[in-house]
Design a protein that fits this description.
Elements (H helix, E strand, L loop, with lengths): L1 H8 L2 E2 L6 E2 L2 E2 L3 E2 L2 H4 L3 H9 L4 H4 L9 H11 L2 E4 L1 H9 L8 H5 L2 E7 L1 H16 L16 H23 L6 E7 L14 E4 H7 L7 E6 L2 E3 L7 H4 L3 H6 L6 E5 L2 E2 L17 E5 L1 E6 L2 E6 L1 E2 L7 H18 L5 E7 L6 E5 L5 E4 L10 E3 L21
Parallel strand pairs: 5-6, 6-7, 7-9, 8-10, 9-11, 11-13, 12-16, 13-17
Antiparallel strand pairs: 1-4, 2-3, 14-15, 17-18, 18-19, 19-20
Helix pairs in contact: 3-5, 6-9, 8-9, 9-10
Amino acid sequence: MIINSINQCIRPRPVDSRKPTDGFLVAPHFSTMSLLSLPPEILTQIFDHIDSSFFRENLAHLTVSKLWFEFARPTFLKNITLSAENLRVLVSSGATKEPSPLQDSLEALFLKIRGDQVRISRFYQEYRYRQGSNASNAPPAPDEFHGDNALETWLKDLDTNLAQLAIMAQKSRRLRVLRIQAWGYPAPAPLPSYDGYYYLSLPTMRALLSVENLSVLVLDLSTNFLISSRGRGGDAGGHICTAIGTLLGTLRTLHVRMRSICPDVLKPRDPNGSLRVSTVVVNLSLDLNLGGITSASHSRQCGPLSWGFLQLKADMREQAEALAARMASPKTVRILTHSYPNFRRQSLDVLTGKTMILEGDVAWDEDGETVEEYSGRPESDFSDDDSSFFDD
C-alpha cells in the first residue's frame, strides 16, 4: 500500500511549469500536498521505499519544493556511481568532508575507473622507443601526448581523491555495497600482461577495503598496484588479498578478479565459526576482445615467485572448499578460468565439482552447460607473458 501511495503522489500532471515553488523552479508539478503534510518520521519511511534511480533518471524530481528536497536528497545519495572525473568534482566540491549528507546516506558505491591517461603515456613512451634517435622522426612533445608530466599529475590527483573518498566511506555507517572496476582503454575488459598499467595506489586500495559491515564486495581490477602514487607495486608489493579475506566476516557476496591473487582472498580473519557469506566467485580469467583479436591470460599468484597457473587454480579450489565448509548457507562458490585455444570461459562449481561452459557476456555466477570433460586443449601453465595480445 505504501508503494502504491507513493506512485500516486509523485505521478506528474500538466500544470504551468514556470511557476516557482518554495524557491525552486519546478519542471513537472506533483500532487504532493497531502504527502508533505505527514509527520517527518513517516515521510522518512516513505522516501526510503523510493529507489534512488527515480531521482537519478530525472533530476527535476528533486526540485518539487525545499521540503521535498530535504527528504528526497538522502534517497538520491543512497546509490552513487563515480568515475575518476566526477570523483574529482565531488571531492573539490567538499561533499566528502564532514558534515556530509553523502556520508550519512550512502549505501552502495560503484567506482568505475579507466586508465586512459596511463595508456596515453604508455603510447608516448613506446613511440619514443620505436623512433629512437632519428631526428627526422622525433616524437611530439610530451604535453602534446599528455605524457609523463600529465600522467604524474593524474596519478597524484586520483590517489588524493580516492583517499578522501576512503575516509568518507569508512565513516558511512549505512554503506553495505562496494563495487570497484578499474580497467585500461578502451573497453571495460581486463587486459593481459601490459606492464604500463599501474594507477591504483596500494595503501589507498587497502583504505577503501577497510570499510566495516560490507555485505557485497565486487572487485574487477585489471591494473597492477602502486606502492604509492610514484612507485610501482607489481606482483611483489600489490598484495591486498588479506584485506579482502578479512571482510568475509560480514560479507554475503564476494566477486573478485585481479591480475595478482592468492588463496588469502578466501581466508577469513576468524578461523572459527560459521559465515553468513553465501555467494563467492573468483574469476582467474583475464580476457580481452579488441578489434576482433581475442586473447586472454590468467591471474598470477601474489608474490615475487609464481608456481604456475595450475598450482594457483588448485590452491584456490582447496581454499574455496575450506571456505564453503564454513558457510552457514552456501549458494554459489565458483572459480572461473578459460580454455585454450578458443578462450571459452569455464566455471568450476566448487560445491558440486562440476564444470560449466559460460557462453557470451553472462554474469560470473550464471549457470552454463555442464560438461564432463571439455574437449579444448588441455590446461597448461601459461603465464601472463605467454599470451601477448595486440600491436597498437
